[in-house]
Backbone:
């Protein structure tokens, strides 16, 4: 070996001549890097859709509910609650809803027994609710001014209810609320920030008061604040509604729950990264063990090279290069395998694929470093062999 190119060629030949052994010692870097790529990729992809959805829906939605002091069994807000909340300077828009109890909703008469036992929630809603929620219609339209002015008995289905009723978008359909026919005018899309709305049917406040005989007062508000002022708005709403009185108002920011769920994946990610590092460590021990045995098996080769004048440094460099190749190839194969797993899982789970390509050099560097450290002892052992000693080793 007169130059470095010859040294690379010999080191590469040493690996390719024993393909099964080389594949076995590459498993450590492959599994380690694949585990780390998969750990970050899968957890980030799992919440990638959630983060994308949050970016679309915004983190400035607040839900306010009437507390027990507003009434006994079914507390409601004052009639002018919407104007009170709109008066807050950091509020963009407000929509009121009323949870109506004691209403049996039937898609067909044959299902009366089931739907009496498992009633579908009915909500009287303002005409601007989808705008405040930033949720589109799947089909048809939302409740509008015409429904109020013409006293139309119109109803909108949540996505879950529409599927339960077997509703086909665009079909002429009526359902019964306490035996009174209501015409279905639309289907609301999935409400990620408040999934309870997916399983409800929506009517106008006028229909709730004059058709179903309720008091028509809202008991829940959806408030969209100015971006960046969510916390301040959240604190101001109870005071604006109760006007400093004893009436209770509970508020929540639903995006906080979704963000907390996204952050919960961090723990799983850290555990999986630790497993990847453990696999690298165990793989490093395997590399050291197999290459130490390989030194004994290749003692004749080492002896011949020493007899031909190759110095200890070149023998050591050869085995170090073999370790380097093992780490590099194992890291590359592991990275490709990890990316493949992320894409495959994301395809079946309908996730947004997120790959942390910027971290690849770190993970691959760890795999290569472990391989080099693992090959250090076998390299020194090979370099210390004398030509006559190789005859004894066979």
Residues:
């Amino acid at each position: 070996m007169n130059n470095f190119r010859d040294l690379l060629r010999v080191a590469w030949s040493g690996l390719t001549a024993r393909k099964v052994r080389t594949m076995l010692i590459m498993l450590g870097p492959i599994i380690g890097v694949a585990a780390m790529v998969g750990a970050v990729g899968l957890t980030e992809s799992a919440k990638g859709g959630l983060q994308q959805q949050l970016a679309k829906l915004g983190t400035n939605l607040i839900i306010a509910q009437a507390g027990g002091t507003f009434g006994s069994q079914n507390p409601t807000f004052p009639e002018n609650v919407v104007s009170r909340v709109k008066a807050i300077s950091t509020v963009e828009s407000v929509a009121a809803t009323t949870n109506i109890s004691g209403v049996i909703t039937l898609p067909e008469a044959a299902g009366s027994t089931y739907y009496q036992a498992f009633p579908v929630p009915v909500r009287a809603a303002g005409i601007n609710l989808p705008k405040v929620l930033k949720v589109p219609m799947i089909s048809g339209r939302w409740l509008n001014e015409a429904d109020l002015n013409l006293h139309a008995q119109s109803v909108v289905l949540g996505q879950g209810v529409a599927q339960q009723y077997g509703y086909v978008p665009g079909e002429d359909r009526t359902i019964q609320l306490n035996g009174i026919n209501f015409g279905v005018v639309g289907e609301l899309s999935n409400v990620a920030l408040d999934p309870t709305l997916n399983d409800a049917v929506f009517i106008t406040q006028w229909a709730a008061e004059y058709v179903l005989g309720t008091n028509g007062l809202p008991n829940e508000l959806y408030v969209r604040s100015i971006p960046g002022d969510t916390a301040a708005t959240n604190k101001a709403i109870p005071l604006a509604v109760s006007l400093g009185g004893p009436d209770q108002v509970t508020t929540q920011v639903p995006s906080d729950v979704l963000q907390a769920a996204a952050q919960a994946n961090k723990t799983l990610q850290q555990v999986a990264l630790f497993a990847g590092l453990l696999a690298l460590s165990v793989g490093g021990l395997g590399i050291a063990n197999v290459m130490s045995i390989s030194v004994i098996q290749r003692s004749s080769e080492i002896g011949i090279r020493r007899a031909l004048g190759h110095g200890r440094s070149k023998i050591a460099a050869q085995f170090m290069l073999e370790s380097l190749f093992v780490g590099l190839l194992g890291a590359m194969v592991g990275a490709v395998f990890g990316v493949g797993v992320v894409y495959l899982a994301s395809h079946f789970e309908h996730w947004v694929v997120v790959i942390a390509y910027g971290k690849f050099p770190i993970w691959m560097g760890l795999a290569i470093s472990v391989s080099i450290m693992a090959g250090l002892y076998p390299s020194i052992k090979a370099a210390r062999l004398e030509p006559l000693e190789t005859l004894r080793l066979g």
Summary: The chain has a mean pLDDT of 83. Residues 254-297 form the longest helix (44 residues). Residues 60-252 form one domain. The first strand starts at residue 61 and ends at 66.
